[in-house]
């Protein structure tokens, strides 16, 4: 089995693809940045996913981070490479998917990139070159109004062509289903190019992955990983050290329609607080009062999860002037990450984070280097185990100055953490996820 090196463009995407790799029998570890690729757990793994925070980063920064990750994976010993991006192809006309593909082809000396964003388990399929979300084309789905990457076209070739210097071709469903030899011919080495593949079920994705030789750069959603393991599926892996004890917290910075439905359901069953976006926009610090409220809820009912969220309606975003939204989004991420850090010393045992950008900030603030994948909660969402220093201050320098100053780091302990893409999971996820920790 080839040693697989995967680069994910956000932290939830990293746990997404890692969960699929684990489900097909791969021994996989997620590292949060190429500099974290150290330790015996990486030497023993046969697949490593490096999680970046590059999906909406400036193109130059994104490409630099992707190349750093590729070099780290090659030094680790990867013989096959996989660029994982969102199954809804979140990107602008300037990138970042196309520039990342171009840079990796050049860096790795490869000739062909396979682009397969399909993920049927989560309703993402590609047919005749068009990307569908459920029964709707991408440009007619809720992704049309995504606040950072609005998707106004479903034709992937049109989306990708302006982003890349390489030719873009299609591999249609009849060719995919003609079998491995036809796929291999379509991906045969020649001048650098990207081939966008149709896939409407898991068998299509398995065929594409298994027919891809090492000269092919694999790119797409997590579904492509179904063809990169042993035959058959492995059982869910338990958390290595068992279910942790302590308080349970959900923090949500996502504004996606799926997350909004999860919030609506959870509010009826869980103690919940909504961020005051107007106060955030004015520069107020909310993390200390939120942390105090969360700890009060745990004291009242120790094992009941608590929810803190940013938005439950698109009207929340519309109320913020367009030129201030990026700043408010950053304050949301910072507030939720600082809240998670503030609760560590008060018994936080399990943390569910909704939203890719929020997940990235939380992981960085808690100083988490790597995670081991555990049981699945939904397609693309898993519990994982992370080591944290219970009295550690924020490690990325972004800690809220209004939070209490902490003592030197105490003994490292382990928490359960789930990083959820905004679009994943059913409406009961926030209330039912905890069943897997029993």
TrEMBL record:
InterPro entries: 4-carb_acid_sugar_kinase_N, 4-carb_acid_sugar_kinase_N_sf, NBD_C, NBD_C_sf, OtnK
Reaction equations catalysed: 3-dehydro-L-erythronate + ATP = 3-dehydro-4-O-phospho-L-erythronate + ADP + H(+); 3-dehydro-D-erythronate + ATP = 3-dehydro-4-O-phospho-D-erythronate + ADP + H(+)
Four-carbon acid sugar kinase N-terminal domain mapped to chain residues: 4-227
Gene3D superfamilies assigned: Four-carbon acid sugar kinase, nucleotide binding domain (3.40.980.20), Putative sugar-binding, N-terminal domain (3.40.50.10840)
Protein EC: 2.7.1.217
Region spans: Disordered: 235-254
Keyword Magnesium tagged: no
Domain Four-carbon acid sugar kinase nucleotide binding, first and last residues per copy: 249-430
GO molecular function: kinase activity
Swiss-Prot/TrEMBL keywords: ATP-binding, Carbohydrate metabolism, Kinase, Nucleotide-binding, Transferase
Family: Belongs to the four-carbon acid sugar kinase family.
Function in brief: Catalyzes the ATP-dependent phosphorylation of 3-oxo-tetronate to 3-oxo-tetronate 4-phosphate.
The name this protein goes by in its record: 3-oxo-tetronate kinase
Lineage, uppermost ranks: Bacteria, Bacillati, Actinomycetota, Actinomycetes, Micrococcales
């Amino acid at each position: 089995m080839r040693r697989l090196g995967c680069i994910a463009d956000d932290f939830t995407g990293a746990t997404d693809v890692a969960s699929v790799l684990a489900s097909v029998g791969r021994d996989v570890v997620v590292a949060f940045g190429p500099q974290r690729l150290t330790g015996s757990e990486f030497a023993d793994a046969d697949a490593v996913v490096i999680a970046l925070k590059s999906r909406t980063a400036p193109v130059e920064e994104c490409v630099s981070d992707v190349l750093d990750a590729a070099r780290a994976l090659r030094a680790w010993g990867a013989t096959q490479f996989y660029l994982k991006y969102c199954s809804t192809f979140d990107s602008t006309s300037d990138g970042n998917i196309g520039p990342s593909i171009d840079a990796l082809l050049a860096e790795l000396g490869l000739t062909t990139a396979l682009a397969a964003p399909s993920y049927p388990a989560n309703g993402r399929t590609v047919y005749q070159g068009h990307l569908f979300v459920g029964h709707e084309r991408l440009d007619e789905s809720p992704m049309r109004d995504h606040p950072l990457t609005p998707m106004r076209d479903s034709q992937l070739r049109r989306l990708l062509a302006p982003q890349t210097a390489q030719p873009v071709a299609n591999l249609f469903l009849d060719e995919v289903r003609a079998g491995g030899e036809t796929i291999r011919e379509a991906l045969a080495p020649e001048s650098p190019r990207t081939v966008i593949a149709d896939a409407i079920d898991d068998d299509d994705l398995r065929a594409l992955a298994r027919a891809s030789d090492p000269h092919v750069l694999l790119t797409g959603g997590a579904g492509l990983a179904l063809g990169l393991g042993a035959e058959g599926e492995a059982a869910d892996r338990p958390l290595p050290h068992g279910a942790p004890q302590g308080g349970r917290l959900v923090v949500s910075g996502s504004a996606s329609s799926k997350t909004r439905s999860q919030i609506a359901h959870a509010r009826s069953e869980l103690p919940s607080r909504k961020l005051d976006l107007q106060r955030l926009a004015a520069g107020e610090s909310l993390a200390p009062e939120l942390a105090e409220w969360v700890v009060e809820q745990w004291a009242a009912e120790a094992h009941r999860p608590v929810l803190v969220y940013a938005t439950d309606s698109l009207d929340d975003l519309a109320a913020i002037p367009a030129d201030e939204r990026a700043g408010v989004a950053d304050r949301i991420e910072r507030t939720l990450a600082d809240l998670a850090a503030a609760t560590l010393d008060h018994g936080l045992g399990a943390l569910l984070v909704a939203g890719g950008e929020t997940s990235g900030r939380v992981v960085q603030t808690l100083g988490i280097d790597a995670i081991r994948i555990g049981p699945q909660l939904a397609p693309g969402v898993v519990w994982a185990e992370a080591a944290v220093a219970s009295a550690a201050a924020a490690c990325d320098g972004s800690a809220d100055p209004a939070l209490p100053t902490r003592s030197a780091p105490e003994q490292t302990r382990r928490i359960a953490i789930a990083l959820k893409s905004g679009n994943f999971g059913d409406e009961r996820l926030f209330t039912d996820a905890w069943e897997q920790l029993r």
